[in-house]
Amino acid sequence: MDTSELYARGLRRRKAMFGEADVEKRMAAAGEFGAPLQNIINAYVYGDVWERSGLPNDIRSLVMLGITAASNKPAEFKVHAKGALANGCTREQVQDVLLLVAMYCGVPAAIETNRIAAEIFGEAPGAPAKTQQIEP
After folding, report:
1. Is the separation of the CB atoms in 133 and 88 below 8 Å?
2. Which fold has domain 56-136?
3. Cβ atoms 72, 102 nearer than 8 A
4. 30-67 residue pLDDT tens
5. H or E segment to which residue 95 belongs
6. Exposure winner among 9, 32, 71, 74, fewest CB in 10 A?
């Protein structure tokens, strides 16, 4: 498969997981300088790795939540938490991943991501309910 096919396939998957508007916004925010990285993300991250058959999408999403929480990347955690909802992950699954992060990586690594997850699941004070799954 050539790179343009991987790119198109990855862009479709990315938009299905995160919404067309959010993906377009992130890509535009990267500007001309960030365009090569966006190409890599679309083609290889989503067009290749996310398209592999070894793991179901909900498990991939849970792994991403663990990675982004453990590596203290709250902005990416928030993006992938929304994607996890689109991929069918439940509140309880996300909560269990964050408890594992707290136990194995330390409580500080899990504090901010717990707040973000609560916001996404509509449980933070004043947060709108966002527990509805998005169809991929």
Report:
1. yes
2. AhpD-like (1.20.1290)
3. no
4. 999 999 999 999 999 999 999 999 999 999 999 999 99
5. helix 91-105
6. 32
